[in-house]
Design brief:
This protein has 18 helices and 22 strands. By secondary structure, the chain is α+β, with helices and mostly antiparallel strands. It folds into 4 domains: 108 residues, no CATH class; 176 residues, no CATH class; 79 residues, no CATH class; 217 residues, Beta Barrel (Porin). Keywords: Signal.
Length: 637
């Protein structure tokens, strides 16, 4: 770091004035002088951990802390001046306890991680610097009793803008609980503190940093309840390898962060970014954030952790209640599935002849699945009451001489996020339309489209953010913005007789008016639609869908500068092989207000994946009377 080599001259210089020495006493001033000399002799060469403790990042004109709560700093200039903050921090450690305001903690206790590091570097003489008792901190550490840490990834939840990309948090594993009792450990979570429940406002404010983000400590089972049960999100747990001293440093820093906040940015200073910061505090050699430029996405957090040799000891899959029930349904034959459906409707009970005639194994499977179903719907009410399972169902299950299926390996309804393709994508293609050939270049920072391999992602949804596509037309020798998908979300919820959820999609984009010959002119458009999708079973290679959309387009190349209408689209995705996916779709577009027009569009897209991060795609598109074909390579990183 630029100021590290001069640390000796900067540590204590502000506290050498006679006024300072008088206010703190000659003994204190003398000892500060000795510490200054010691620091000069050591010539501390690496103050990286100081940057981590204060969470600094390099700016164009110096250093600016990412912490936005001023209680995090000892110096009024601490946010932008690390030298003055270091000096003020060291001086604060000499503050007599009598000078601390009632109800406040001594700086040695408030900034325990900084005190630990500076003590290690400068070897404070405990006979000359009074070491304070930190009762609250000690009780907190004794409660946590850390013996390990686990990085937890909660899978995607499309009904909440904050959770569409997944979520990461830390679990503090305790020696008090031991193996197999992780639910009663504690978790550490960083999240925005929103002031709105409006999804659109949440997204906008999250993009511009209008929410404060805070760390919180909580019993881990509360997050399992929220993610695993209420939201039916699978959890992937990555047990980390840290020494006892590294865990101690990380938790002391987490203690420091409890009193401050950060401006929450959806793609930058989010849950994943700050979780990486905590891991770097534990082991500064990891340098986990160095590889990120524009965005830090939860899946990237897991991937970068997995890429560190020896950091992840093991991975555990914790399926949601819904995944547990669907696993049981997969093991049922068609007759059992029909009986379960009748039980849900109330047409069949444990006393019904059709149920009593089943083998005990089938009865146990059905009752277990039915209880999962009841638990799921009870959780949807987000009630603190017990799960509403009728006593008759519990009695019927208890009479069966069949063991539970706790030891049965559960099918993974989500795949490990660290095995997915990169979230950034670069595309290069060559194509031809009705008039001329062209080259196509595209880049997007996030996230996943339905034509990409879905290992590590939700197989029924796509999120595309800031996808810019340029074309160079070879004959007219001009470059044009072909498309800019500012945000495009599609959630295909395949029809399920037990859980009927509509499919939906929304898009904001700049696009070329492809149904008219206006020399590649652009329009700004917005789309929102609802639909139905169908997959024969969860792992079927075929997915059918249909949508009805509302559309609005604005351009000075349109009559009256706009057109409003909609479309009806039907389509399918089919995985011919593990690496070959085909999409076929057709739609009828109708615009009734502004410029009136009706026309058909059709699309045939094939994708062949050479690897998780590289694929080849062939597209044949028709817009009204205009045709085009594109062959492109897509590289994910």
């Amino acid at each position: 770091m630029p100021y590290a080599c001069a640390l000796a001259a900067l540590l204590l210089s502000l506290y050498f004035s006679p006024a300072t020495a008088h206010s703190q006493g000659p003994r204190t001033a003398d000892y500060l002088g000795e510490l200054q000399l010691q620091a000069r002799q050591k010539k501390l060469a690496d103050a990286r951990i100081w940057h981590l403790l204060l969470k600094y990042k390099k700016e164009l004109f110096g250093f600016t802390s990412e912490a936005d709560g001023m209680d995090f700093f000892n110096s009024p200039q601490g946010k932008t001046d690390p030298e003055s903050e270091l000096e003020a921090t060291l001086a604060s450690f000499f503050m007599p306890l009598s000078a601390v305001a009632e109800g406040k903690e001594h700086p040695q206790c408030n900034f325990a991680a900084r005190f630990k590091w500076l003590n290690h570097e400068l070897a404070f003489d405990r006979n000359r610097l009074e070491i304070q008792e930190c009762d609250r901190l000690n009780r907190w550490m004794q409660t946590l009793a850390p013996v390990g840490a686990t990085l937890v990834f909660a899978s995607y939840f499309m009904n909440n803008p904050a959770s569409m990309f997944g979520h990461t948090l830390l679990r503090i594993d305790s020696r008090r609980t031991g193996k197999g009792n992780n639910l009663i450990n504690y978790g550490a979570n960083y999240a925005a503190v929103p002031d709105t429940e409006n999804g659109f406002l949440y997204a906008v404010k999250g993009l511009i940093g209008s929410f404060p983000g805070r760390f919180a400590i909580f019993p881990y089972y509360t997050k399992v309840q929220e993610y695993n049960n209420w939201e039916s999100r699978d959890l992937w747990e990555y047990e980390l390898e840290f020494t006892e001293d590294q865990l101690n440093t990380m938790l002391l820093h987490l203690w420091e962060l409890g009193g401050t906040y950060f401006d929450y940015y959806y793609f930058q200073e989010n849950c994943s970014y700050h979780v990486l910061s905590l891991l770097e505090i534990a082991n500064p050699d990891l340098r986990l954030k160095d590889s990120f430029f524009f965005s830090v996405i939860p899946t990237d957090t897991v991937k970068i952790a997995m890429a560190q040799e020896g950091l992840v000891k093991q991975t555990v899959y914790r399926p949601s209640v819904l995944s547990q029930m669907n696993d049981k349904r997969l093991r049922m034959d068609n007759d059992e599935k029909q009986i379960l459906k009748s039980m849900v409707k109330g047409e069949v009970t444990a006393d019904s002849p059709i149920f009593e005639n089943l083998l005990p194994q089938s009865q146990a499977l059905l009752l277990n699945a039915y209880m999962d179903y009841l638990q799921y719907w009870s959780m949807q009410e987000k009630s603190s009451n017990e799960v509403k399972i009728p006593r008759a169902v519990l009695l019927a299950r208890s009479r069966l001489p069949v063991a539970g299926d706790e030891d049965t390996k559960i099918t993974g309804f989500s795949s490990r996020p660290d095995q997915g393709h990169g979230t950034d994508r670069f595309q290069f293609g060559i194509g031809h339309n009705e008039r001329e050939p062209f080259l196509e270049f595209a880049y997007r920072p996030a996230y996943h489209d339905l034509m990409a391999k879905d290992v590590g992602y939700d197989k029924n949804s796509e999120i595309i953010f800031m996808d810019f596509k340029l074309r160079y037309y070879l004959e007219s020798e001009r470059v044009r913005l072909d498309q800019a998908k500012l945000l495009s979300i599609t959630s295909l919820n395949p029809y399920d007789s037990l859980f009927a959820k509509p499919s939906w999609r929304a898009e904001l984009a700049i696009d070329t008016l492809r149904d008219r010959n206006c020399n590649y002119c652009n329009s700004f458009k917005g789309t929102y639609g609802r639909g139905i999708s169908y997959r024969p079973d969860f792992f079927s290679p075929l997915l059918l869908y249909t949508f009805a959309d509302l559309k609005a387009e604005f351009s000075d190349h349109l009559k009256q500068n706009f057109r409003l209408g909609g479309d009806a689209e039907v389509g399918m995705y089919f995985d011919a092989t593990e690496n070959l996916r085909i999409k076929l779709a057709g739609s009828y577009q109708v615009f009734l207000l502004g410029e009136s027009k009706r026309f058909f569009t059709s699309h045939l897209i094939t994708r062949y994946a050479f690897s998780q991060d590289l694929d080849l795609r062939l597209e044949l598109n028709r817009y009204d009377q205009n045709n085009e074909g594109i062959l492109s390579f897509n590289y994910f990183f």
